[in-house]
């Protein structure tokens, strides 16, 4: 039987008095990378926050088969880690210390980092090409440098389930490629990655697409399936096309297709 990392059962959520998500059912298998896509305002970030347990919802979210609320907080934080959109805070901390925050769920209260913590942080900073930044203050970094340090904090958790909202924000193409390699390594090792992505061409490299439209799950399917491509085009009101280019699926705005 397939091992389900995260699932949602009849999930609806509101922000304030506004209903945002409506009756979402999904099952995300372990060892896969799922990209959440859809038009602006569709509810992608809201869904990710619900899956992370950061926003209350009706219905149920389960992590590894167990309701999110039934997990002791520290245990859950060792299993599921989160990178939000445009995170702020900790501006005076050194990049090394920011990445070390990812180790908090592994450490006893007020305990100093041990060798495993140091090794995990070192590995994470190298994986995101942020090792050279380790002695710099977070607040003094560029947008892309900062994002790489925050990604390192996420990786340092060594959680098997990683949720990321717009992880490619500010990253230049080489660092986007590094991120892709990191995600591939995570899933190859049995981890699960769920990422909200606006870059459809990067999203189409995932294993599965979750297509959100107006707060509903329009489609969940493999990235290389014709049905998934049709749903993607429909979600964007027919204003994009999906084409094979050099062995990859590429999404282009129709206007650019005509110009090409
Ligand atoms: N704090 C808030 N208060 C009120 N409405 C909100 C709030 N945050 C989000 N919303 C609304 O909830 C809806 C879904 O927002 P969400 O950020 O989940 O969409 P998204 O699909 O991630 O959008 P985008 O692609 O623009 O990042 C939008 O209509 C948005 O305006």
UniProtKB/TrEMBL annotation:
<dbReference type="InterPro" id="IPR003593">
    <property type="entry name" value="AAA+_ATPase"/>
</dbReference>
<keyword id="KW-0067">ATP-binding</keyword>
<dbReference type="InterPro" id="IPR027417">
    <property type="entry name" value="P-loop_NTPase"/>
</dbReference>
<feature type="domain" description="ABC transporter">
    <location>
        <begin position="6"/>
        <end position="239"/>
    </location>
</feature>
<keyword id="KW-0547">Nucleotide-binding</keyword>
<keyword id="KW-0813">Transport</keyword>
<dbReference type="GO" id="GO:0005524">
    <property type="term" value="F:ATP binding"/>
</dbReference>
<keyword id="KW-1003">Cell membrane</keyword>
<comment type="function">
    <text>Part of the ABC transporter complex HmuTUV involved in hemin import. Responsible for energy coupling to the transport system.</text>
</comment>
<keyword id="KW-1278">Translocase</keyword>
<protein>
    <submittedName>
        <fullName>ABC transporter ATP-binding protein</fullName>
    </submittedName>
</protein>
<keyword id="KW-0472">Membrane</keyword>
<dbReference type="InterPro" id="IPR017871">
    <property type="entry name" value="ABC_transporter-like_CS"/>
</dbReference>
<dbReference type="InterPro" id="IPR003439">
    <property type="entry name" value="ABC_transporter-like_ATP-bd"/>
</dbReference>
<dbReference type="Pfam" id="PF00005">
    <property type="entry name" value="ABC_tran"/>
</dbReference>
């Amino acid at each position: 039987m397939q091992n389900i990392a995260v699932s949602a059962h009849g999930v609806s959520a509101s922000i304030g008095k506004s209903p945002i998500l409506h009756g979402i059912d999904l099952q995300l298998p372990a060892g896969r990378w799922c990209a959440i896509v859809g038009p602006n305002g569709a509810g992608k970030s809201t869904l990710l926050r619900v899956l992370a347990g950061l926003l209350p919802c009706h219905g149920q979210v389960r992590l590894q088969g167990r309701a999110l609320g039934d997990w002791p907080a520290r245990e859950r934080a060792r299993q599921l880690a989160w990178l939000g959109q445009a995170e702020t805070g900790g501006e005076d901390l050194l990049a090394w210390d920011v990445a070390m925050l990812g180790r908090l769920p592994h450490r006893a209260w007020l305990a100093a980092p041990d060798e495993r913590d140091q090794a995990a942080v070192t590995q994470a900073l190298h994986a995101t090409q942020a090792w050279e930044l380790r002695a710099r203050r977070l607040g003094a970094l560029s947008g892309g440098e900062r994002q790489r340090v925050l990604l390192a904090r996420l990786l340092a958790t060594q959680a098997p389930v990683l949720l990321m909202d717009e992880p490619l924000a500010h990253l230049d193409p080489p660092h986007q490629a590094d991120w892709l390699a990191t995600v591939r390594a995570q899933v190859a090792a049995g981890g699960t990655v769920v990422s909200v992505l606006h870059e459809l061409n990067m999203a189409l490299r995932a294993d599965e697409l979750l297509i959100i439209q107006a707060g509903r799950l329009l489609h969940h399917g493999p990235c290389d399936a014709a049905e998934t491509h049709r749903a993607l085009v429909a979600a964007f009101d027919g204003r994009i096309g999906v084409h094979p280019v050099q062995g990859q699926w590429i999404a282009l705005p129709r206007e650019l297709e005509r110009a090409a």
